[in-house]
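[SOLVED] Need 3D model of a two-part complex

Original post:
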Amino acid sequence: QVQLVESGGGVVQPGRSLRLSCVASGFTFSRYAMHWVRQVPGKGLDWVALISSDGSLKFYADSVKGRFTISRDNSKNTLYLQMNNLRAEDTAVYYCAKDLFENGGSYFDSWGQGTLVTASS
Amino acid sequence: SYVLTQTPSMSVAPGQTAKITCGGHNIGSKSVHWYQQKPGQAPILIIYYNSDRPSGIPERFSGSNSGNTATLTISRVEAGDEADFYCQVWNSTPDHHVVFGGGTKLTVL
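Solution:
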């Protein structure tokens, strides 16, 4: 079955960087768009970024544009989120999620369990 | 940017019907998807394309979408249905992005 496993979260000082990873299994990773979605503990879901199946299309939420970069390595079945210049308001659980389509535009049919990022001094 | 509005919380007695709404400008022209999230867990998809159910989701869960409101209906509510529910759409103008509603916390009395 589909499995998405995030890693890379932790405590980081504001202004510093962190890279999250999501290893996928149970499906043909290279055929599907992937997303990052975050959730401040106790709050709602907040979409972060999308990357198409081949990596040619990338879209970002305004709140992270210019600071975060989504990427993927289809040979390693791995999705990444490079987070630079982190702010306190970026503190959240970060989920990777699989889209139904290769270029996105649909729903999330599978989610990882999330990794917690805390930006605090 | 496109906004989806959900009632923050609602309560329902076991066996009754819960209707959770998701408001948005002309949302009836969009495809709406719904997720259920229990405490400490990742969200799971319960309704896609307004009214379709993934395999394994009980028939008690149904969806509709028209005009400015999409609705998730849970019939014969059970204690195990207590959770947060989120609606979601894909918005392609002016920029491609995903929009979530703020979520509705369903409490089973």
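Edit: The interface with chain A takes residues 1, 31, 33, 35, 37, 41-45, 48-49, 54, 84, 86, 88, 90, 92, 95-103 of chain B (CB under 8 Å).
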